[in-house]
Write a structure and sequence with these properties.
alpha+beta; 8-stranded mixed beta sheet; 25% helix
Length: 138
């Protein structure tokens, strides 16, 4: 049984494992049983009922999701040459949480925060939110 789960953050879609410029920010939201991702221009990257999403978190902190048969590699922060989130993505993130109670619980570990910008915490929190929402993630 699942319960209503809401979560949002800006993650980075690794469209290429070699080219950091192709590691682009997406605003990912989970609300009312739907997982959505929007790119810097506001275009929908994917949208699917959370129960139709599968994936896993790798040991290195990459969240590998399969949505509508397509695989997405998502990481908690981009490369130094990756584009920054757009003002629209930042505003969408703030607006999402303006009407919801942010999750409580553990925050990022000290080493993750200092060495990795809390990237592992970001993807780990997504794995947990997706599992709570009914996605097939491990």
């Amino acid at each position: 049984m699942t319960h209503h789960t809401a979560h949002a953050s800006i993650v980075y879609w690794r469209r290429s494992i070699w080219n950091g410029r192709r590691c682009v920010p997406v605003l990912m939201t989970l609300d009312q049983g739907w997982l959505r991702a929007r790119d810097r221009a506001g275009a929908e990257v994917f949208a699917a009922p959370v129960g139709q999403v599968a994936g896993r978190l790798t040991r290195l902190g990459t969240l590998l999701l399969t949505v509508d048969g397509r695989r997405y590699a998502l990481v908690g922060r981009g490369a130094t040459v990756s584009p920054d989130p757009s003002p629209e993505q930042k505003r969408g993130f703030v607006d999402f949480w303006a009407h919801r109670t942010p999750p409580t619980g553990d925050g990022p570990g000290l080493l993750d925060q200092l060495l990795n910008g809390a990237a592992a915490f970001n993807t780990r929190s997504w794995r947990n939110a997706l599992a709570a929402g009914g996605a097939g993630v491990r």
